[in-house]
Amino acid sequence: MNDIQTEDFYDPGIIKKRPVSIVKGKGALLWDSEGKKYLDFGASYGTANVGHCNDNVVKAIESQAPELIHVYSNFYNSVRAKLMKKLASLFSEKLNKVYLCNSGAESVEAALKFARAATGKKKIIACMRAFHGRTFGSVSATHNPDYREAFKPLVPEFTHVPFNNIEKLKETINDDTAAFIVEPIQGEAGFILPDENYLKNVQKICREKNILLIVDEIQTGFGRTGKMFGFEHYGIEPDIVCVSKSLGGGYPIGATITTEKITGKVPKKSHSSTFGGNPLGSAAALAAVEFMLEKNLPEQAQKKGEYFLKKLKQINSSKIRQVRGKGLMVAVELKERAGPYISALMEKGILVIPSGKTVIRFLPPLIITEKQIDEAVEKLEKVLK
Ligand SMILES: Cc1ncc(COP(=O)(O)O)c(C=O)c1O
Fold this sequence. Notes:
This protein has 385 residues and is an alpha/beta fold. Helices cover 35% and strands 18% of the residues.
């Protein structure tokens, strides 16, 4: 059996797979087992902001692995301490508590649990079309029924309101509301941008009603949108921020960043994770964050994103309904099903990701070059013809 047959035999078959085996990556490039090269404009749903097998991340893993791969966080560790300090330095002074875990969903779980524990209230409001993960808490905040129905009953006291609708949020908040959780730009929904003052108004209401504002930066974080975090575009200061994906430069790690006022109310011993903050992941993440800062990846994403959007808008095709995005979080919405075009792009060596039935999402590594962007745009234009 080859790789594909072996995986098909043993895999539970729950997610849809693409029919190639990827064996190698460098920068914005991936190679399959047949030696075919791809430009990766999907980057595993925005996980490769610093590029595949980033030299600094590889070196950090190579030097940390022989020292110590894992020790539970009931012991102190110098690499973990450095990562916590570095992560906190990316936020305002108040956001100085860093809970480390292993994935996006875990970082959302912690945020939801901290919000309930800190406020003593139960209700969580999330947005329609939101995606926050697939564990029981995070999937209860997620909206798409495809991810929810089979697993009901989910965690109680979760409600959804339309994104960009401040009135519905106001109406839905009651005395038992602990928090509102929101992606600054809705990712899974196909890169839906917030209206100009939406997030500012959200923050205002949260403050007035004394409920916590949780911002999910798992897809938008670490430079993706042209700022280090997506919320920075909108002049707000969340109470809790969830990050993961690109944080580890490809190594699985997540973090929930919040205030002492909140963590101070979370009961001792009530939450933790065996592998959260392990030294190997901490070393990888520290190298990835240092690379982002050193190379000013947010500014790179801003400039290249403008270039990419401009090029996409120049494509002359009646099949395109809209081109939208921020930084290097770019979507092309078609007037017809996107699936065949996504497959055709893959044939031509460009990997992109779908959203819903009609949207093509582009989430390239932020180190992508203009030449590589040109190649993707040219190939998209070709397949649309
Ligand atoms: C906005 C957002 N939140 C949460 C998650 C869940 O992250 P993970 O798959 O690491 O659990 C994702 C993953 O795509 C995401 O995009």
